[in-house]
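Quick one: structure for this chain?
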Amino acid sequence: MQNEPQIEILNDLILINNDRIEGYKKAAENLKDNNSELLSLFGSLERESRHNVEELTQHIIGMGGEPTTGTTTGGKIYRAWMDVKATFGGDDAKGVLESCESGEDAAKRAYDSAMKSGELTDVCVPLVSRQQEAQLRGHDKIRAMRDRM
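Got it. Here's what it folds into:
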């Protein structure tokens, strides 16, 4: 299929966004204090990722592909590590934000790779570029909040 490399890239972005969704759910669970600012940010970034998945899914279907579901193995391992860290006292706001920033670093690498692949058509480049810019803004918000702690 002519679109196969592009579909594979978009499916990778679905997986990384699913990792973000699950990661922010886990971050909210692991946050001991009910920091409303952090909970609001986590919810906003989770919703952003859900929207990204919806857009990517529609593009894949439009190309005749099969959208993926689930999360990456690395994301699953990382969320398990977040649980272990929280169990042994690493559930303070700064620690949770550090974990979130690591997840955002993985998302940044995925979007950078997609944009540099040369496989995206003119139809998909604006979508992926817009999502990448939003992801970078989310990363910067996480880092700024971490630095304030």
